[in-house]
Write a sequence for this structure.
């Protein structure tokens, strides 16, 4: 995920708390933001049990649907002829990580998340929405990991394919001069290069399918987190602007 400063830069909660700490003198804004947060919390607490059950049911359903999706990928969907060995390896790899993810999710199903939610709401509506953004991002960190795994695999495969395709055309990349030079291959080297290029060519569709699926899932989750973060920023800016106008 990166270093601590990079992680904090991704955190909507950190941004909202930093703004509040930097504006402690704006008492009216802080009070109104906290009041709005407590009102929303009060409305939610009236049906907390129902919301809690529905939310975690949806999370587990999402995980179950992801397992179904991977199972569907192993059956050559839409007529795609995926590589069986690589497909089996990737599906087993992701099934194992989904099992870890399910265990990871159960850690958040305890009552301490409720108290964190109450604390964030007491600090303000903008902090509450920012907390939801960060909570969703932390809860779905495995989707981000799946995206990174497949992205790295796709990059390595593509770089290797470019390298062997250059060698097949009697070319090679010269990193010292940063240019493509000519190279002479004997029959054995040409055979190995051709074989490697064919293998990579047949592996790439499978890798691209997994990369496309998990990138789409990550973009949807990231989009939801960004939307919540933007909502928190808009709430903060609206309340702060109204406070400045009244002042």
């Amino acid at each position: 995920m990166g270093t601590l400063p990079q992680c904090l830069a991704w955190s909507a909660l950190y941004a909202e708390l930093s703004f509040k700490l930097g504006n402690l003198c704006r008492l009216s804004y802080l009070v109104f933001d906290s009041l709005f947060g407590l009102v929303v919390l009060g409305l939610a607490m009236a049906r907390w049990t129902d919301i809690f059950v529905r939310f975690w049911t949806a999370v587990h359903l999402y995980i179950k649907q992801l397992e179904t999706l991977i199972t569907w990928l192993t059956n050559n969907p839409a007529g795609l002829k995926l590589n069986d060995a690589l497909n089996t390896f990737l599906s087993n790899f992701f099934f194992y990580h989904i099992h870890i993810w399910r265990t990871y999710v159960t850690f958040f199903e305890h009552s301490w998340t409720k108290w964190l939610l109450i604390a964030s709401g007491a600090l303000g509506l903008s902090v509450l929405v920012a907390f939801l953004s960060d909570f969703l991002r932390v809860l779905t960190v495995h989707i981000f990991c799946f995206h990174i795994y497949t992205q790295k695999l796709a990059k390595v495969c593509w770089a290797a394919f470019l390298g062997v395709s250059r060698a097949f055309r009697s070319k090679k990349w010269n990193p010292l001069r940063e240019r493509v030079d000519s190279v002479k291959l004997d029959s054995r080297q040409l055979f190995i290069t051709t074989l490697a290029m064919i293998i990579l060519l047949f592996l790439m569709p499978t890798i691209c399918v997994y990369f496309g699926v998990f990138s789409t899932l990550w973009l949807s989750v990231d989009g939801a987190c960004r939307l919540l973060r933007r909502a928190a920023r808009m709430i903060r800016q609206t309340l702060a602007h109204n406070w400045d106008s009244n002042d």
User: Anything to note?
Assistant: The mean pLDDT is 82. Residues 8 and 46 are 33 Å apart (CA to CA).
